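Onboarding guide, step 5: your first structure request.
Type a short instruction followed by the sequence, for example:

Predict the 3D structure of this protein.
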Amino acid sequence: MTQEQYLAYESRLNRIKDEEAAQREAELRLQEAKEKAIKEGRQKGLKEGREEGRKEGIRKGAEEEKEAIARRLLKKGYDSW
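The system replies with structure tokens like these:
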């Protein structure tokens, strides 16, 4: 193998290694982006779920309070409004 052939071989080898490294880097970045999106989606879903739960709790509490007031009024004889 001549010096020129050896240098050409080294050049091709380095180019192949660089391409493989770039491919691995791209795959890692894609995987990281997917994991980040999943995490953010979960966090958003949990936040929305908590907010929905709070609203439902407030609504249910208000309904229960109205029912309690109605029962007290009926118990006191205020059923002819």
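Each response can be followed by summary notes, for example: The chain has a mean pLDDT of 93.
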